[in-house]
Write a structure and sequence with these properties.
Blueprint lengths: L1 H5 L2 H18 L1 H6 L1 H28 L4 H33 L23 H6 L6 H7 L2 H15 L4 H27 L1 H16 L2 H4 L1 H26 L5 H8 L1 H9 L2 H14 L5 H14 L2 H17 L6 H14 L10 H11 L7 H5 L2 H26 L1
Helix pairs in contact: 2-10, 4-8, 4-9, 4-10, 4-19, 5-12, 5-16, 5-17, 5-18, 5-21, 12-17, 12-21, 14-15, 14-21, 15-16, 15-21, 16-21, 17-18, 17-19, 17-21, 18-19
Length: 398
């Protein structure tokens, strides 16, 4: 057991970060040549995005027993999850602009083949961008917002068809989701290798200064996460659910602590179910639906972190994002977090999508990875706390 833990992906990634920094500093030419290995890792991450998002969103909605459950528990759960995630992203953007970490540093060089396209904000174009004229074209181009829009409609429509046919459809996408989770674990297992070559190439190209600048980014993320966990979520519990959120937290504190140590919402699920039912006073029916759903689609901490990370990358790259691009980040992160798998490191998969949505180079992930594991523990604990508070809230309003 100790040996297995010693050679875990997380520990190997930490070693790879240090080794990559040293390798990139002392062997810059070779590091630049070997960057292709890191690019392969990034392409593998991007390969997972569309099927993972499509399948996970579909089964989250189609898992409802039917139209009645959609109206009672389902709508309330989805409204809660969507609202808290949107608030988390908005909070992240606001706190980022208040602190503005990395502003004016221009520490990362944008590759010459990458162009940052700035578009004027048009309400009609913005609304039309959600609706795919051809879903297969949207899938082939990786247009994430139209894909999410179609998936939600498709999953809701599945609730209105014959039970036997719906079961077949659900089982099909559930199997795809399971297979994609396995594939995601395989790709994430390659993280130490990918990180080594990506961080080495980043150091070779930009030096050590961007890494030293990360302290302001880490502090911004932690401040935003703490505010969301201690103020935003409890306020919803107190004003909407009419219960004492801090007393409830003390009752179910084991689950967020385990989420913090494992950095996995899925691994914490059995504990979350137990403490919510046995200590938190949540019924088995509500906990059994809301918590597994939350472990799949409710990623407040992850969404908040990703919004700050993308803005930080833009800052240190010397890119000024337009209002339209920041709204795109808000929408993309809010909905894309629904498809973030509840396994350690899966936020990196979503990060590639968000960077792509505003035209920033995916290679910049190499810088964020150096502190990702540390921040992953905090954001997973916030994710789990949001799930548990949601279960209590829905219990109260039913």
């Amino acid at each position: 057991m100790a040996r297995k833990k010693l050679f875990s992906v997380e520990n190997l990634t930490l070693i790879a970060i240090g080794a990559g920094i040293a390798f990139g500093y002392f062997f810059p030419a070779l590091s630049t040549e070997l960057k292709a290995v890191g690019d392969i890792y990034l392409k593998l991450l991007k390969m997972l995005i569309i099927p993972l998002v499509f399948a996970s969103i579909f089964i989250a909605i189609a898992s409802l027993s039917g139209k009645e459950e959609l109206k009672s528990i389902g709508v309330k759960a989805f409204l809660y999850y969507l609202s808290t995630t949107a608030l988390a992203v908005l909070l992240g953007i606001v706190i980022f602009h208040l602190i503005n970490p990395g502003s004016g540093e221009h520490l990362l060089q944008i590759p010459q083949n990458v162009t940052i396209e700035k578009k004027e904000l048009s309400l009609s174009d913005f609304l039309l961008s959600f609706i795919p004229a051809n879903i297969f074209e949207a899938l082939s181009k990786g247009a994430i917002l139209p894909i999410i829009f179609f998936t939600i409609l498709f999953a809701v429509a599945a609730l209105f068809i014959q039970q036997t046919k719906r079961t077949v459809l659900y089982n099909f996408f559930d199997s795809i989701n399971d297979a994609m989770m396995v594939l995601a674990r395989w790709v994430i297992a390659l993280t130490p290798i990918g990180v080594f070559f990506l961080i080495a190439a980043t150091v070779a190209k930009n030096g050590l200064e961007p890494i030293f600048e990360l302290y302001s980014y880490v502090l911004t993320v932690l401040l935003a996460l703490m505010f969301h966990a201690l103020v935003t979520l409890p306020s919803i519990g107190y004003f909407v659910g009419r219960f004492n959120p801090y007393r409830y937290f003390l009752q179910i504190k084991e689950a967020p602590l385990i989420a913090f140590s494992t950095a996995s919402s899925s691994a914490t699920l059995p504990v979350s179910l137990e403490v919510a039912e046995e200590k938190g006073g949540v019924s088995k029916k509500v906990a059994g639906f809301v918590l597994p759903l939350g472990a799949t689609i409710n990623m407040d901490g992850t969404a908040l972190y990703e919004s700050i990370a993308v803005l930080f990358i833009a800052n240190i790259s010397g890119v000024e994002l337009s209002l339209a691009q920041q709204i795109t980040i808000f929408i993309t992160v809010t909905f894309a977090s629904i498809g973030a798998a509840g396994i350690p490191g899966a936020g990196l998969i979503m990060m590639t999508m968000v960077l792509d949505s505003v035209g920033l180079p995916v290679e910049a992930i190499a810088l964020i990875i150096t502190v990702d594991r540390f921040l992953d523990m905090f954001r997973t604990a916030v994710n789990n706390w949001g799930d548990l508070l949601g279960a209590k809230l829905i219990q109260k309003v039913l």
